[in-house]
Amino acid sequence: MELVFFLLFGTVAVVTALGVVLARNPVHSAVALMACFVNISAIFVLLQAPLLAVIQIFVYVGAILVLFLFVTMMLDIRDAELQRFLPGRNLAAFALLVLLGIEMLVLVLMSNRFPQAAAGSRTGGEIRELGVTLFSDYLLPFEVASVILLVALVGAIVLARKESG
Amino acid sequence: MMVPLSWYIVLGVVLFVIGAAGVLIRRNILVVLMSLELLLNSVNINFIAFGHFYDDFRGRIFAIFVIAITAAEVAVALGILVALVRNKATLKVDEVAIMKG
After folding, report:
1. Among residues 62-101 of chain B, which lie with CB inside 8 Å of chain A?
2. Which of A80, A85, A160 sits opposite B82 (nearest CB)?
């Protein structure tokens, strides 16, 4: 059953990811990206990380994609959608991508060091344990992340503001 | 039936390659940024899959940090984009060469 769900969500995620790259209109790309994120969060549920799935939907679908759609509405996209890809033949880029994909697939599929089954799954107090770990062992990175978010907030406002002199 | 770990990793690889393709060959800056999101998300799948299979919380904590940094990155990138379009009125990657890159 888990296998069926994994194949379903994985296939839809890959198809919608292709839609992001191939769509002509940036709005279509954004909608395909939203579908992709929802499927990835379903895969997080399969990996028994429901908290991450919820965070994924809140942050990516609720915040980041809305931001993308707002910016898309603010900007004039009509001339940009006429030409999808960079001009000229992107032979080097394609060669690089094929090389990258083949290398990673070979490394993953040839390896025999992956564990076959999941270690004992602790589903009960998972979120509590995650919170305790986050606020004790990872307190400094947590504070640094909050400072980074604050700096990004101020920076985005300063960058997007009109020059008033 | 259990899904083996390597399948999750292969899914991450496929999404990563698709996202890298978007970053390298698309011309619209907005779509390039969206493909960047795809790259970061495929890495998150790897983190959480390894964390699940090794029964380790650090994978999930790293994924949380990746999501937070992604939010900051998108805010700054879109701010730069709005400022850029206001000054130069283009959304094409190859026409933005102020820094002679």
Report:
1. 63-65, 67-76, 78-83, 85-86, 89-94
2. A160
Whether the predicted pLDDT of A102 surpasses 70: yes
Test mutation, B30, B87, B92, chain A, max A CBs within 10 A:
B30
Number of domains in chain B: 1
SS3 of chain A: CHHHHHHHHHHHHHHHHHHHHHCCCHHHHHHHHHHHHHHHHHHHHHCCCHHHHHHHHHHHHHHHHHHHHHHHHHCCCCCCCCCCECCCCCHHHHHHHHHHHHHHHHHHHHCCCCCCCCCCCCCCCHHHHHHHHHHHCCHHHHHHHHHHHHHHHHHHHHHHCCCCC
Which pLDDT tens digit goes with each residue over B68-82? Answer: 999 999 999 998 888
The highest-level CATH class for domain A1-84 is: mainly alpha
Is B87 inside any structural domain? yes
Mean pLDDT of A105-121: 76
